[in-house]
Amino acid sequence: MENCTALFEQAQTAAKQLAQLESSAIQRVLNAVADRILEQSASLLEANAQDLTRMAPDDPRYDRLKLTEERLAGIAHDMRNVASLPSPLGLTLDQTTRPNGMTITKVSVPFGVIGIIYEARPNVGFDCFALCFKSGNAVILKGGTDALCSNQAIVALIRDTLSAHNIDPNTVQLLPADHAATTEMLGAVGYIDLVIPRGSQRLIRYVRDNARVPVIETGAGICHTYFDRAGDKVKGALIVNNAKTRRVSVCNALDCLLIHRERLSDLPIICNMLADSNVILYADREAWEALQSHYPRPLLREATPDSYGTEFLDYKMAIRTVGSLEEAIEHIARYSSKHSEAIVSEDSAACELFTRCVDAACVYCNVSTAFTDGAQFGLGAEIGISTQKLHARGPMALRELTSYKYVICGDGQIRG
Q1: What is the pLDDT of residues 94-110, one digit of tens each?
Q2: Average pLDDT rounded to a whole number, residues 267-276
Q3: What is the largest CA-CA distance in the chain?
Q4: What pairing do the DSSP bridges indicate for beta strands 385-386 and 394-395?
Q5: What pTM, to 2 d.p., does this model score?
Q6: Is 270 helix (H, G, I), strand (E, B) or coil?
Q7: I need a surface site. Which of 97, 218, 393, 395 has the fewest CB within 10 A?
Q8: What is the C-alpha separation between 376 and 385, in angstroms, rounded?
Q9: What is the catalytic activity of this protein (predicted)?
Q10: Are 339 and 222 within 8 A, CB to CB?
């Protein structure tokens, strides 16, 4: 406990010093980190390779864990994007002058110290540092054992860069990878202002149920696409294939296709490209019959109750037949994690009803759910996808990592 408490205190001290940094200094540091990512890519990949040796290549998490030259270049690019964005701090969110002459200004401010708990995704360390640093927050990272070597190398690179710019390296901390450190983080009242879990439903549920500090739920994505009776089958096939197969291990990947009963004859066309990626389909009886002569039999299975409401994170997808738009909305309401949901339809009234009635952070019309991403939304990057409704919802970028305070100015006013 003493070791983690010392780290928490150091992060608090660093957060107070961040308030004195100019925006230009923050931008220089982020660009310097991006430079070092490219300069030290060989050592980062070497550390990552050590982690990969401990995970089976067919594990759905393997793709999340893996770093490549291309991915490191993308991380550096995202770092520069964040550096170039306007500062979210000190913004006037609202202002009013009262009849007595007092001016009340609502101003954006950092949270202070943000804790991030995540699993086998080493890129999270870079993304979270960039966003927290740009928004004036110190960050305490708690990764898992799967990415231990990668996380250590990433945090060492960042801390070295901070030190080189005469900034407290404790602005970013990496906790031990054991379970005890998670318990300490979740109970760090007075030290950590906010905890954000990134990972599986199991991790998020554990954090939510055990934390004594404020939590924002992010990550778990049980995503649906509804193909309406007025859907375009060409658009539908492209959208479904992209949402399912672009990257199966991410939270915006498609898990369940809902199809209107009147369009079952088009289901083979909609699912045709999925066979090229060996996607296993768990279809209800009607969908199974529509596909049985058109989809590889080893990849076609009958759905069970467990097929729905499952985040597969794999080349697997459920299919359910519905008789109406309303039935599709009811299914989503029952099984959704409130992450990303989509409709494919040329009926504007159906699209309008779907977007109004579906309760999710991101609701799409004729677009792949793969776009639920901070960079794709023009936010530079994201610290996670919030699936709750308090404070922030959807991709959490710079503005979502700030709170606010009221600044009241006057000329000697007193209250009678």
Answers
A1: 999 999 999 999 999 99
A2: 97
A3: 83
A4: antiparallel
A5: 0.85
A6: helix
A7: 97
A8: 13
A9: L-glutamate 5-semialdehyde + phosphate + NADP(+) = L-glutamyl 5-phosphate + NADPH + H(+)
A10: yes
